[in-house]
Amino acid sequence: MTSQPITLTSEQADAFGRELDAIKEKVVADLGQADVDYIRRVVKAQRAMEIGGRALLIAGIFPPAWLAGTALLAVSKILDNMEIGHNIMHGQYEWTGDPALAGRTFEWDTACPANQWRHSHNFSHHTFTNIVGMDRDIGYGILRMSPDQRWRPYYLGNPMYAFLLMVLFQYGVALHELETERIRSGQISLADKRGVLSEIWAKTRRQLLKDYVAFPLLAGPFAPFVLTGNVTANLIRNVWSYAIIFCGHFPDGTQEFTVEETRNESRGQWYFRQVLGSANLTGGKLFHLLSGNLSHQIEHHLFPDVPARRYSEIAPHVREVCERYGVPYNAGPLPKQFATVVRKIVKLALPTRESRESEELAPAA
Q: What is the DSSP string of 214-281?
């Protein structure tokens, strides 16, 4: 079982929850046209960068044009996935009544079908955050990211699996709802997931045809430059998304929980778990924008349906509340947090003390 540095009494947890609720209520009451204008500006900028990037790639025979086009396309994909798609699909702009900002119908530029992501991420992950055996984002069904996960020889490949997940991240996310770990263990069969697999393949096929067939063909003799630019832009988006997400969930100081530890938890205890299971990344406005404001992962886990642009103003108040209650508030620069994530991935490839103890205590067959 993962040890916790502090605990809150039920009375303290209720008070902690009320203070955080008050922070959210104040921000929600202030939402208005400025928030709508912001997300529309981001959408407009993202579309302009995609058009500009694809146009420059056609002139990719000139290296500066290829580099600029690839960079613009990569940033447009990052914005589409992080600040636009992720946040809209969380329902952060439902209050506007704008169909273009409706989270239940939004589709994004990545291999994962949006309707599957809304279930695996919005429901499963944000409800059962960092509960081992419940939150499938702990390792994505591929990695061992907690000592509470029982070690198997398969996990000796942890670093290799992590690297492959990083460079192919959009496909790893796409396969998330397939529950491959349950298929491997024999709990379910591939036939049980036929409908899910069909949706994944349909979306992945569209993405592959768009980026690697249609746009290169439209470029005629310049197809190789467009193709390599698209491959590189997708790779940059994958690596960036992986780094931001893993650094928000798995650096040193974040905690995992057992089902028993979270049974019958109150609203305040749920908030307590969100803070302990998350980590923030420090940086400037551009960094926060490109991270989809998931650099404020603590605030996002607390208030996933609040427009992410508001997290920077919420963060100091959340931190102050945490300090008064003695709840650790994990924040640090990306390189430092990522280094601890890599160290954890390597360390957990081997049997840990917790896993050895659980095996020794297990009854004989």
A: IHHHHTGGGHHHHHHHHHHHHHHHHHHHHHHHHHHHSSTT---B-HHHHTT--HHHHHHHHHHT--EE
Give me the long-range contacts of 61-67 (CB less than 8 A, separation at least 24): 61/222, 61/225, 66/225, 66/228, 66/229
Q: Which residues, 6 or more positions from 172, have their beta carbon under 8 angstroms from its beta carbon?
A: 140, 142, 165
Report CA 223 to chain centroid distance, whole Å: 32
Cα–Cα distance, 151 to 219 (Å, whole number): 50
Q: Would you call 186 helix, strand, or coil by DSSP?
A: coil
Whether the Cβ atoms of residue 169 and residue 241 lie closer than 8 Å to each other: yes
The secondary structure of residue 350, as a DSSP letter, is S
Which pLDDT does position 3 carry in this prediction?
47
Q: Is the pTM of this model over 0.85?
A: yes
Q: Rounded distance, CA 100 to CA 62, Å?
A: 37
User: 149-153 long-range contacts, Cβ below 8 Å, gap at least 24?
Assistant: 149/348, 149/355, 150/355, 150/358, 150/359, 151/348, 151/350, 151/351, 151/352, 151/355, 151/356, 151/359
* 202 CB neighbour count, 10 Å cutoff: 10
Three-point CA angle 108, 130, 151, nearest 5° = 110
Q: What is the pLDDT of residue 269?
A: 96
Residues facing residue 333 across a β-bridge: 282
- Distance CA(14)–CA(300), nearest Å, equals 20
Which residue carries 């695996």 as its tokens?
Answer: 120
Distance between CA atoms of residues 117 and 274, nearest Å: 20
Beta bridge partners of 131: 257
Q: List the one residue out of 88, 14, 96, 30 whose CA is nearest residue 310.
A: 30
Neighbouring-strand partners of residue 145? none
To which H or E segment does residue 316 belong?
Answer: helix 311-325
Give the residue ranges of the chain where pLDDT is below 50: 1-4, 358-365
Model pLDDT, residue 355: 56
269 burial class (0-12, 13-18, 19+ CB within 10 angstroms)? buried
